[in-house]
Amino acid sequence: AQSVTQPDIHITVSEGASLELRCNYSYGATPYLFWYVQSPGQGLQLLLKYFSGDTLVQGIKGFEAEFKRSQSSFNLRKPSVHWSDAAEYFCAVGRGSARQLTFGSGTQLTVLP
Amino acid sequence: DSGVTQTPKHLITATGQRVTLRCSPRSGDLSVYWYQQSLDQGLQFLIQYYNGEERAKGNILERFSAQQFPDLHSELNLSSLELGDSALYFCASSSDGGYTFGSGTRLTVV
Questions:
Q1: Which among B97, B82, B94 is positioned nearest to B38, based on CA atoms?
Q2: Of A37, A112, B43, B73, which sits 20 to 30 A from A79 (CA to CA)?
Q3: Cβ of B110 under 8 Å from any chain A Cβ?
């Protein structure tokens, strides 16, 4: 069965510092990979997605992610974090012909001033 | 505004009751997905409809059911509610493999 692991439950960074959120997946075929962000009391906003092609994907709000098949990873990065980036981040993999999503458990990001 | 509309935003009800959550997908999207987000289970896929037909089922309880109507809006029916059903219920719609989520319905069972 497919699964998504986000090993970091909580990450704290200072504003302006770089950020990397880890995501590992287990899936038998070529995965469809996603990163979503959820602010308190809000829905899920798509940051970026990977279906195929270039393994470095650019998203909104200055985020990028790199698909590494050999490591089964899809880590999210941002070179300089802003206070407004504080939120919970979810990695997800789309599976099956219906492509319903399997989510990781999320990483809570705190940004220090 | 994501284009996916969910109503109501909040719902408080008693155990044993039945509620209906409503979702209107983005214009043109034929697929509707329902997800449940709870503290202990995280985000879980419940069920998917495509153009009125059930397409896939996930961890959906027998007490829960859903349908998609000809105008493509969908309803998730939750019955015989238990305290453990308290959660945030999301609807998402999809057309090109990208998913757009609504802002969710927060259900509190007391």
A1: B82
A2: B43
A3: no
Asked if residue B41 has pLDDT above 70, the reply is yes
Ramachandran bin of B15, using left for φ above 0, alpha for ψ from -120 to 50, beta for the remaining angles? beta
Chain A partners within 8 Å of B90 (Cβ): 43-44
Which residue type does A94 have? G
Which residue in this structure is represented by tokens 């989520």? B101
Task: Select from A91, A100, A105, A108 the residue whose CB has the most chain B CBs within 10 Å, as the one to mutate to test that interface.
Answer: A100
Contacts of B100 in chain A (CB under 8 A): 46
Q: pLDDT tens digits, residue range B80-110?
A: 999 999 999 999 998 766 789 999 999 999 9
Return d(Cα B56, Cα A100) in angstroms, integer. 8
The verdict on B101 touching A (C-beta cutoff 8 Å) is yes
Given pLDDT bands bounded at 50, 70 and 90, which one contains residue A100?
confident
What is the DSSP pairing of strand A10-14 with strand A107-112?
Answer: parallel
Distance from chain centroid for Cα A88? 10
pLDDT in tens, A14-62: 999 999 999 999 887 778 899 999 998 788 999 999 988 889 999 999 9
The answer to whether B103 and A38 are in contact (CB under 8 A) is no
